[in-house]
Write a structure and sequence with these properties.
alpha/beta; 8 strands; 18% strand; six-stranded mixed beta sheet
């Protein structure tokens, strides 16, 4: 009888030990709980940081507040020098605005801004484009085309020769510029693009007029680096520009949401982000 009791006791003891082990394995210690909690917190923080970054990126692309901040930063840059002068181009007085950061030893390149029929160079000045472009390290030049703004009255009879003369007067016949050409100014930039592509470092057409005057082969054979930017609410000129410039071997096209014909006014932050990214690629600076 004594032997049987001891065997039962041993069995009960063994079962008890196994039970304790099972409980220990199934229910982690407080230390394990803390480690798991820390891991979860770390994952939550990483996810939070990722979401915040995405939100920040979205705001920087589309928020007018950020564009205002960029303008403010450029305005506070004491190194930026702005000038307004009249130059003579082929016997015609042309008004020119220029902004450059004099603190920078070298310029990243020159961006020449033309304008649409309803605007002048003053538009780029008021928008903040000239100062911000200079703040980004580029020389910014905007002109009033003949018969507009403060330039001499009277239309030019040869837009290509005018553009060649203009580039020479501005010293851009050697150091090639990126030319930004919205709407009506396509009548000046597009003929130059196809007759003298060597005059461009790059081209940023903004729904320019006249894209249909040139055939598909001319677009396909033109190797100028081109960055077309249009608004999604510009179904006529914008859509035509996208269709044509998408055929260029070194062309890229962008459509800005909730933007009309002058898309740079509706979405200034996104427009300028695209422009500066393109300039960096073209100038390599």
């Amino acid at each position: 009888m004594a032997i049987q009791v001891n065997n039962k006791a041993a069995l009960l003891g063994f079962v008890g030990i196994v039970g304790i082990i099972v409980i220990y394995l199934h229910y982690p210690s407080k230390e394990s709980d803390n480690q798991a909690a820390l891991q979860k917190t770390s994952l939550d923080n990483n996810r939070k940081e990722s979401l915040l970054k995405k939100l920040s990126d979205t705001n920087s692309r589309s928020g007018n507040m950020n564009w205002e901040e960029l303008k403010s930063a450029a305005k506070s840059n004491a190194g930026i020098t702005s000038t307004e002068v009249t130059v003579e181009v082929g016997g015609t007085k042309i008004f020119k605005r220029e902004a450059v950061d004099s603190k920078k030893k070298t310029s990243g390149g020159t961006i020449l801004f033309l304008h649409g029929q309803a605007f002048t160079s003053e538009n780029w000045c008021k928008l903040g484009t000239l100062n911000v472009t200079a703040h980004q390290g580029y020389k910014a030049i905007a002109i009033d085309l003949p018969d507009y703004g403060q330039s001499a009255k009277g239309k030019t009879s040869d837009s290509v020769q005018f553009m060649l003369d203009l580039l020479k007067v501005l010293g851009l016949d050697i150091d090639k510029p990126i030319i930004v050409s919205p709407s009506m100014s396509g009548g000046f930039a597009l003929p130059l693009l196809f007759q003298h592509p060597e005059a461009f470092k790059g081209y940023i057409p903004v729904a320019p007029v006249g894209v249909g005057k040139f055939n598909d082969d001319e677009y396909k054979n033109n190797k100028v680096f081109t960055c077309s930017i249009v608004g999604d609410k510009d179904p006529s000129l914008g859509a035509a520009a996208t269709a044509k410039f998408s055929q260029m071997p070194n062309g890229e096209t962008h459509t800005l949401e909730d933007a009309g014909h002058p898309c740079y006014l509706d979405q200034p932050q996104e427009f300028h982000n695209i422009m500066y990214a393109f300039a960096k690629k073209v100038f390599g600076a």
